[in-house]
């Protein structure tokens, strides 16, 4: 009988989840940075570091969306969901998360 090492499998799953999370965060950061680059004359009442809040909040929302994407696609059989439905559901969750992160991050500045 061959003994299977679960520790090695866990490292592969952790790395895959980390890559998916970082990909979601990087995509969200790029979108928000592109959006904020178009701001020509920000209101002086916002302060000098007003850009940090939307960048951080949207990046965190993108990271969470990427992690949820990994979880849904990795465990879709255990959840009893068809893979196509899991892909569409994870994309929808990611987009809604980005939208809510953008609203939360831009509240009080560009989102009035």
UniProtKB/TrEMBL annotation:
The keyword Transmembrane applies. The chain crosses the membrane at residues 21-39, 51-73, 85-111. Keywords: Membrane, Transmembrane, Transmembrane helix. The keyword Transmembrane applies. This is Potassium transporter KefB. It comes from Pontibacter ramchanderi.
């Amino acid at each position: 009988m061959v003994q299977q090492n679960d520790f090695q499998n866990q490292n592969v799953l952790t790395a895959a989840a980390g890559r998916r999370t970082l990909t979601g965060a990087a995509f969200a950061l790029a979108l928000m940075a592109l959006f904020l680059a178009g701001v020509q004359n920000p209101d002086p009442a916002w302060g000098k570091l007003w850009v940090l809040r939307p960048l951080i909040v949207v990046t965190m929302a993108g990271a969470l969306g990427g992690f949820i994407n990994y979880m849904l696609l990795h465990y879709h059989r255990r959840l009893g969901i068809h893979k196509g439905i899991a892909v569409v559901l994870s994309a929808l969750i990611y987009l809604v998360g980005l939208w809510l992160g953008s609203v939360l991050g831009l509240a009080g500045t560009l989102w009035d």
